[in-house]
Write a structure and sequence with these properties.
Blueprint (H helix, E strand, L loop, with lengths): L1 E5 L4 H16 L3 E6 L3 H9 L3 E4 L4 H6 L8 H17 L7 E4 L3 H14 L2 E6 L27 H26 L8 H6 L4 E2 L17 E2 L13 H8 L5 E3 L9 H14 L4 E4 L14 E4 L4 H4 L5 E4 L3 H10 L3 E3 L6 H11 L2 E3 L7 H11 L2 H11 L6 H10 L4
Parallel strand pairs: 1-2, 1-4, 2-3, 4-5, 5-6, 6-7, 8-9, 8-11, 9-10, 11-12, 12-13
Helix pairs in contact: 1-15, 4-5, 4-6, 5-6, 9-13
Length: about 400
């Protein structure tokens, strides 16, 4: 059996697909991953022996470069639809299956390719707030606010249909017509389907079923990382008490040098050493003191087991990794689903949700002070043992045994 996995997004979108790809390959399936052409994604997939089909433009260059003009967005959406349609279609055939996630136009292109070729298709949510539910509101796209007088979540999701049609309907339906498919009235529900998959841990993310959706929560899709930590990092870790990790992944963190300085000062105020992850914001700290260590790409699964706490942006993958490791967390949410994960970390008692996206030395130090208490550490250690690790096995079973 052949399976095509498709995403357009950052590492948090690509790595879960790599985890599923490895599991599927172990079970004898042939797997291709359609993903952005960034070198780091290609290297990650190559390291685990998974074929990558570079699709679209570099995500890192888009995230860290100047924001696009609003007038460019319709064209970019149309390009993504067509690019992922072509990438998924290439080499696919009867009996194959398609799983798509990432930016909506990319998933829409994959959905159309599956429909055109008669392939099985599943939409994958890597976080719950993208799925319609009366228990949370939809994401507000820039320039598309919902009426302030509407506060009922069900009503907001009904309005969201119009928002998604306005943003993506022309791109999706224009391409569908061009390849001989009929247009659809509701592009959102067409792409998400009535039975989407949700690759999150049920303890960290307790999904409550919603009318009209039969969500299949598989557990988080984890790619085991066996890489050793760099020798100089190990020497730093061995040289003193566990440090605090600070990293913001793919977030550009405008004014990044200030963020690094604030973070280091906040950690030092708690009497701790610090490991700074450069990330896409290119964080660094140059005062030369030996209580600060800067790392690039590193095995977070190994590192988080050796830190006193992790300060991060609240991406689904980083939050899950820190929770699995039993590391107390301070989440400084930036966009989209990150406030949700910050709230879950706080609700579980495994860390603290920072108030706002731009920390000061005082606010971050205060949050760290709470996260570093023995009570939070004990709670984080207890919850760590409850996180499921079989998400890719569940998803592989769904793909290889459709009636499962």
């Amino acid at each position: 059996m052949r399976v095509v996995l498709a995403t357009y997004g950052s590492r948090g979108d690509v790595q879960p697909l790599a985890g599923l790809a490895v599991r599927l390959r172990e079970l004898g399936a042939q797997v291709r991953v359609c993903a952005p052409p960034d070198e780091e994604f290609a290297a990650q997939l190559d390291a685990v022996g998974v074929e990558m089909v570079p699709t679209g433009l570099s995500v890192r260059s888009l995230v860290t470069g100047p924001p696009p003009a609003s007038s460019e967005l319709p064209r970019r959406a149309a390009d993504l639809v067509a690019q992922f349609y072509d990438a998924v279609s290439a080499g696919a055939g009867p009996g194959d299956a398609v799983v798509a996630t990432g930016l909506f136009p990319a998933a829409a292109g994959a959905r159309s390719a599956a429909e055109k070729l008669g392939l099985r298709y599943a939409y994958l949510a890597l976080q719950p707030t993208v799925l319609p539910s009366p228990h949370h509101p939809p994401f507000q796209y820039p320039g598309r606010p919902y009426p302030p007088e509407v506060t009922d979540n069900a009503e907001l999701w009904a309005l969201n249909v119009g928002t998604m049609n306005a943003l993506f309907g022309e791109a999706v339906n224009g391409h569908r017509v061009s390849v001989g498919l009929p247009p659809v009235d509701n592009v959102r529900d067409h792409v998400l389907t009535a039975r989407p998959w949700l690759a999150t841990d049920p303890v960290l993310d307790p999904w409550r079923q919603a009318p009209g959706l039969d969500v299949v929560q598989t557990g988080a899709w984890i790619l085991p990382d066996e890489r050793p930590l760099p020798a100089d990092l190990v020497a730093f870790l061995d040289a003193g008490e566990p440090p605090v990790y600070v990293g913001f992944g793919s977030m550009p963190m405008r004014g990044a040098q200030d963020v690094a300085e604030v973070a280091v000062a906040a950690v030092r105020a708690q009497g701790r050493r610090v490991v700074i992850a450069r990330g896409w914001a290119e964080l660094g700290h140059g005062d030369g003191r030996d209580d600060c260590f800067v790392v690039g790409e590193v095995n977070q699964q190994a590192l988080f087991g050796r830190v006193a706490a992790a300060v991060h942006h609240g991406g689904a993958g980083t939050t899950t990794t820190a929770t699995r490791a039993g590391a107390p967390q301070v989440v400084v949410p930036q966009i989209v689903d990150q406030p949700y994960w910050a709230g879950r970390v706080a609700a579980l008692g495994v860390g603290v949700a920072h108030d706002g996206a731009t920390p000061t030395m005082e606010s971050l130090s205060a949050a760290l002070g709470e996260a570093l208490t023995p009570e939070v550490r004990a709670r984080a250690a207890a919850v760590a043992g409850t996180v499921r690790t079989d998400g890719t096995a569940v998803a592989a079973d769904l793909l290889l045994r459709p009636g499962a």
